[in-house]
Amino acid sequence: MYLSEGSLEDEIKGKIYDHRLMKRLLPFLKPYRRPLYMALALILVGAALELAFPYITKIAIDGYIAKRDQRGLLFLSGILFIVLLLQLVCGYFETWLLQMSGQKIMRDLRNRLFAHVQALDVSYYDHTAVGKIMTRLTSDVDALNELFTSGLISIAGDLCTFFGIIIMLLYLNWRLALVTFTVVPLIFVATEIFRHRVRLSYRKIRAAVSRMNTFLQEYLTGMSVVQLFGQEQPSFEKFEGINRQHLNAFQETVFYYSVFYPAIELVAALAAALILFSGGHSVIGGTLTLGALVAFLQYSRRFFSPISDMSERFNIFQAAMAAAERIFVVLDEPEEQRNSAGVLPLSADVITIAPPSIEFQNVTFFYDPAKVVLQDVSFRIGSRERVALIGATGAGKSTIINLLLRLYRPQSGRILLGGRDLETYAEADLRRLMGLVSQDIFLFSDSFSENVSLGDPEVTLQQVEESCRRAFIHDFIAGFPDGYTHRLAERGADLSQGQRQLISIARALAFGRPVLILDEATSSVDTQTERLIQKGLETLLLNRTALVVAHRLSTVESADRIIVLHKGRIREEGTQDQLLSMKGLYYRFHMLQAANS
Amino acid sequence: MKNASSSKTNVLTSVRSFKRLIPYFIRHKSGLIWGALSVLATAGMSLCGPQVLRFAIDDLKVSITHHKLLLYASLILGVALVEGVLRYFMRRILIGISRDIEFDLRNDLFSKLLRLPRPFYDAYPTGDIMNRCSSDVNSVRMLLGPGIMYSINTLAIFSIGIVMMFRIDVRLTVLSLIPLPLSTIVVYFFSRRIYSSYHRVQEYFSDVTTYLQENFSGVRLLRAYGCFPSRRSRFACMMDSYITINRRLIATWGLFYPMMGMLGGLGGLVVLLYGGSLVISGRITLGAFVAFSIYLAMLAWPMMSAGWVLNLFQRGAASQERLNVILDGRGVDTSSPGVVAVPSHPPGIEFRNLTFRYPGADSDALRSVSFHVPGGSIVGIVGRVGCGKSTLASILSRIYDPPAGSVFIDGRDITAIPLGDLRRLVTVVPQESFLFSETIAENIGMGGRTKDLMTLASIAGLDSDLRTFPQGLETLVGERGITLSGGQKQRVTIARALARGASVIIFDDSLSSVDVETENEILRGIQEHAGTHTLLIISHRISSIKTADLIAVFQDGELHEIGNHSDLIDRNGLYASLFHREEIEEELARL
Fold this sequence. Notes:
Chain A is α/β, with parallel strands linked by helices. Chain A has helices at 2-10, 19-29, 33-50, 52-65, 70-119, 122-127, 130-172, 174-181, 184-221, 223-228, 232-285, 290-302, 304-331, 348-352, 397-404, 427-433, 448-453, 461-470, 474-478, 497-511, 527-541, 553-557, 576-582, 585-596, and strands at 358-368, 371-381, 386-390, 412-417, 420-421, 434-437, 515-519, 545-549, 561-566, 569-574. The radius of gyration of chain A is 36 Å and the shape is elongated.
C-alpha cells in the first residue's frame, strides 16, 4: 500500500497544465479573487521597483556625480528611500494577501472534502485505506496551495522581472544587451542538467530515508525479540548497510550542489567579463556611459534568479495537477443515494409512546453473489423486548447489525422499524432512534466528556456525568485532577479493556436512544469490572428494544428470547424454555452448562 | 513542545552537550582543517573581484587600451574560476564531513539502542526515539555542516571585507555598516519566531490529522449515532483556528524578506549619498565607489546568515542533549562469555519467594511466588488477564531483572548468569508474535540455527501453510511480501524459538490465535521435546495445558493452586471453575 502510493507520487510525470482540472479548481479561488488580484498587482509593482536600483545608480554616476551636483544626489537618495519603503510595503502585503488567501482556499477545500467523504457510503471505507483518504485531505491539498501561492501568481512576478530586465538592457544599449543575452542559454542548460540530476538523486534519498525509517520503526518495535535472540550484531550490520546507502544518496547531492553553485557564479562572472570587455569598448567609443556600464553589471546579476526559479515552478505545477486529479477522484465519488421522495417525516409518537419494534422480513444479503451472507432471514423484536443473537463467528451476526443500522442495504427483503420500512426514514431521524455498543470500542484522543458525547451539542455535560455514574465509570474519571476534561491518549490506549467497555456503555446511556444494538465484547476483564459491566448493561437495556449479540452466558439467559444463527440462516428461535424443548443446538449447549454447574 | 522548552537552556549546558561530538571531530580533523582553509581562501578570492572592477572603471574613466581591457575581463573570469574551484572544495569537504559524522552518529545511536534494556523502551515511545534518530540527528548535522561552514565564512568575509572597505574610506565604511548588525539581530529574532510559529502550526496540524484519522476510522460508530453534522462543524472550527495559528507565521514570514531588503538597501543608500559626495569631492574614485557598493552587498549575506547560524547552534544544542539521553544511556552487556554453557540435561527452575514490581508501578506484579519446575517437565501456567503469568516469562528471560536470590536455574541465581549466556539457555515465544519484514527462513533462522529449518517449521505446524506460499521458506513477510494471519505468525515465532536450541522454552500465550486442532498438533510436536527440554506453557486457555506435568494457577500476582489436571479438578477451586467456564464458552462458539 505504502510502496505503491510512494512510487506513484515519485513518478509525477503528469501534465504541467491541465485545462479541465484548472476549470474545476477556479470556483475555489473565486471567493478570494479580490485579494488575489491585489496580490498580483503588488507583485508587478514590486518587480518594477526591483528594476529601479541599478537605474538610480546609473543616473547618479552619469548625472549628479559627473556634474558634481550634491543636492541632486540628495534628491536621488530620497527617491531611493521611497523605493525601499515601497518595496517593504509591497513585499509584506503581497505575502500576507497571497498566503492568507491560500490558507482560506485550503480551508474551504478541506471542509468540502471532509463533508463529502463523511457522506459517502460505508462501503467506500471498506475498499479505501484510511491513510489514502488522509493524504487527499492533507498533502494533496497542500500541493494545491503551493500552486496558488508560489506557482500561479509568482510566475507572473518572475516573468515581469525577466522581461523588465530585457527591456531595460535593450533600452540602455541594445548591442551590449545582445552580447549579455548570449550567456542566458548557459544558465538554462546548467539549471536543467542540475535539476534533472538532483531530482534523480532526491528520488534515491527519499527511498533511502523511507527505508531507514521503516527499518528503525520495525527494529525499535521488535527490540526485545532482537535482544532475546542475541541478534544485536547482525541487526547492527543491517542498519549500517542501510545507513551507508542513506549516506551515499546524500553525498551525491552534496556533490551536485558543490558543482552547481560555483557553476552559476562562473556564468555570472562570464557575463560580467563580457559586459566589461564589450561595454568598455563602447565607453571608449563614447556610445555608452560609465553609469550605464555599471547599471548593466548590476542588471545582469539579477537576471539569473528568475530563470532558475521558473524551472522550480514547473515542479510545483506538475505536483499540483497530480494532486488535483486525485482530489477530484474523491469528490466525484457519488454520495450515499437516498430516494428522498420516499422519506416520511417522523411522527412524534414513534419516540415518545413506545420504543419501536424491529422486524426483518425475508432479508437476503451478500457482498459477493457467490457467497450469500444472510439467506431469507426473518424475525421480529417487539417493543421493549430483548433478543439475544447467538452463533459462531461468520454466522452473519455483524451483518444483521450493519443492515439494521442501514450501513448496508439488503439485496432482497425488508427491514421494518416501528412498523415502517427503514428506507423511509430520513438519516437524522433514523439516528435518533438507534444506539450502538460495539464490540471493538472506538475511543478518540479527546476528553472523557467528548468521548461520551461524541461532540454532539445535544448531549449536555450533566447528561454525560449522569450516564457515567450509571455506567460506574464516574469515580474513575473523577479521580483525574482534570476530571471530565482529561484527554485520553491516542485511541484511548491508556485505558483498560474494562474501562473502555464502561465508557462505551456510558456513551449509549447518554444518547438514550430507544432502540439499542449491543455487540458484546469478548475480551476478558477482571471479575469485579465484569460485575460492573453487567450492572451497567442492565441499566442500559431497561425499557429499550434491544438486539444483543451475546458472547456471555449470563447475557443469553437474561434475554426474553434467543435466536440461533447458523451459516446465514436462523436455525432456532424462541424463549429459553421453547428452545430447550426443541432439543436442538441450544439444548446441547445448555445441557453442557448444566452438567458443569 | 519539549523542543521549545529545552532550546532555552543556558549556554553552559549547551556547550557541555557538545562535548560528545569531540571524538567525531577528531576522527575527521584533517578534513576539517582543509575545509576551513578552503573557506578562508574562497572568502579571500571573492573579495578580489571588486578590486579588478575598481581599477577597470577608474582606467575607463581616463582612457584604456584594448589589451588592458582584455586583461581586466580575463582577470574577472580567472578570479571567478579559482574562486569556483575553491568554493567547490569548501562545500564538498565540509558538508561532506557533516554527512559522514551524521553516519557515524546514527550508527552509534543504533548500536546503543540495541543494548538499552527494556525499561528504557517503557519510558520512551517508539515515535519519540524515531524522532531523535531522524530530526534531532538532522539538526545536529545542520550545525556541523552549514553551521560551521557559514560561521567561518562570515568571519573571513567580514574581517577581510572590512579591511578592504577601510582602505577605500573609513567614515564611509562605518556609516554604511550601521544597518548590518541590525540585520543580524533581525534575522536572529525572526528566524526564531518563524521556527516557533512553524512548530505550533505543525503541532496543530498533527491534531487535525489525528482528528481526521479517528473520524474516518470510527465512521461506523459516528454514523450510528448520527454525529456527522456536529463533527463537520467541529472540523470547520479546527480549520478556522488553523488559519488563526498560521496568521502569526505568515505575518512574520511576510515581513522577513522585505525587512532584509530594506536593511540591505539602507547601506546602499548611505553609499549613494555619502559615497557619491566623496566621489564629487574627489576623495575617492568612481571605481572605488562601485567596488565599495559591491563589498557592501557581499557583506550583507554573511551578516544575515550569522543570525541564522546562531539559531542553528541553539537548535543543535537542544537536539544534541536529546541524543545524549540515548548515547549516555546505560547499555547492558549482552555478550555471551560462555561462563554458563547450555547443559546436556534439561535444567530445573526454582522460584524462591519471588516478589516483583515493574519499575514505576505502584503495586507488585508478583508476590512471594515459590515453586519448583523439575528439569525436563512441562509446566502449564494459567490465570485470568493481569494475574502476573506473563511477568514470569519476562523475568526468566531477564527482560526485567528479578531481585537477586529469587529465581534459580539448576541452582544458579539467574541474576548472576551473564545475559548472553542466559538467553542461550532460556528462550521465549513472546505473546505478541513480532516478525521482521524479511523472509520466513531469516525470521526462523534468527534463533541461530540455519539448517533443517523445514523440520522446525513442521513441528510448529507451518508446513501446510508453507506449501501455499509462493516461495516457501524464502517468502518475504510484511509490507513487501505476504501478510500472515495471526496464527501463522505465532507458528513462525514458535519455529524461531525452537531454532534457538535453548534447553528452557517458555511459550507466553503463544497459541492464542490458532484453532484448537492446530494447537493440539503443535502441542504434540512440542511435547516430543519434553524430557530433553524444560517447557513452560503460559496460557489463558486451559485446553492448551491440560496434559502438562504440573499446572500453576495464578491469581492477583500470587500462586493460587498447583498440581496436575485431575488434582486441580478434584479440588474444585479456581482452576476447576475456569475449566468449566471455558468448556461452556467453546460450545457456544461452536453452535
